Amino acid sequence: MKRENYISWDEYFMGIALLSAQRSKDPSTQVGACIVNDEKKIVGVGYNGFPMGCDDDELPWAREGAFLETKYPYVCHAELNAILNSISRDLRGCTIYVALFPCNECAKAIIQSGIKEIVYLSDKYEHTDIVKASKIMLHQAKVTLRKLDITLSDITIRFEDIK
After folding, report:
1. pLDDT tens digit string along 43-91?
2. Which residues are known to be catalytic?
3. pTM higher than 0.90 for the full model?
4. Which terminal residue of the chain has fewer beta carbons within 10 Å of its beta carbon, N or C?
């Protein structure tokens, strides 16, 4: 008899996105993304951080202040990193799982890459012009938006259980 309490595909892929977020060095916001093709195979993952070769001890992590003294002109979002890190240049028809609804810049990359569905957990910045612009573009490009309703409160990974 098979085990009955296994996680769903949505929970699995969102879990990968959340686990990827743990690689982020951003002290205030950790976001991960997981791109999946129509065969339920992961084709890209990413998290928010500075571009390769840029020193995360020298660039700022601040959220407020003069623009060049904040993280915003430097950080690459998880969605863009997942697209750039993908094992395939053809992401047409794929789904991207991300905890936080994508900003307008990530929406452009998602649309241009051919991703057709966004599955997200939180839309806490829905009132901002950045997310409003994102939704306008995603709607026009016919990208499906799906808020994931998770019944699980957590998934625990214990390395010592493998011993």
Report:
1. 999 999 999 999 999 999 999 999 999 999 999 999 999 999 999 889 9
2. 79
3. yes
4. N
